[in-house]
Design brief:
34% of the residues lie in helices and 20% in strands. It has helices at 29-35, 46-56, 79-85, 87-90, 110-119, 132-140, 157-174, 187-197, 222-228, and strands at residues 12-15, 40-43, 69-72, 95-98, 124-126, 147-152, 177-181, 203-208, 216-221, 240-245. It has a five-stranded parallel beta sheet, with helices on both faces. A five-stranded mixed beta sheet has the order 6-7-10-8-9. Helix 7 (157-174) crosses helix 8. The longest helix has 18 residues, at 157-174. The radius of gyration is 20 Å and the shape is elongated. Residues 1-6 have low confidence and may be disordered.
Amino acid sequence: MNHNTPSNKGKLYLIPTLLGGTDTSILPPQLLQVAEDIDVYIVENVRSARRFLVKLGIKKIGKVIDELTFHQMDKHTDPQKFRKFLQAALDGQHIGLLSEAGCPAIADPGATVVRAAHEKGVEVIPLVGPSSLMMALMASGMNGQQFTFHGYLPIQKGERIKYLQRIAAHASKTGETQLFIEAPYRNRPLIDDLFQHLRPETRLCIAADISLPSQYIHTYTIAEWRKKKRNMPDLHKRPAVYVVGR
């Protein structure tokens, strides 16, 4: 399988991972084919990356997973190191970029690696796979033509409430859908703030455990959510995406 560019540089493949669980059937067959041809990976966590590749079922002839090269990155990694990580591609080897969950470079530090690849003339190949943000937007029933992703909200309660009210007002005025996430262990206080401080007519989608058997995705107005809160499952420590719109 020859993926080399005419310049004989390797390529940087952006490899989506599971959003949780062990069911690899949601990943496209092409992903396994590409992984068979990669010996160098840039990852957020080496242990979880190894586990994912084992789940994926790569079968390298004469090669075991311990012989693969892993470069670990996170948001604190010096960008100069990313450029060194790409040296293998300049030497003609393909490199795989793995996120902890979902698509690389979307709400994770992989974007800096991709930028460095473009600077070095390394071809970037994004592969199809699960994205919690896009799947939540798709399932929300809200405007998918104009939307903004805000990442994590302010941790301090007062600032968080003001931020929520501001983006909800923007959604109401413009029709632009607003997406954000939160650390799973802070879901409870965030949901309380949403129910207490947003206008009753504001529409909210809560999408938790996307693609897992325990998936929970519902869209209601805030007024409706307040009535249904007692019957909601506990989303503490469950990965979730929040979508606000009109």
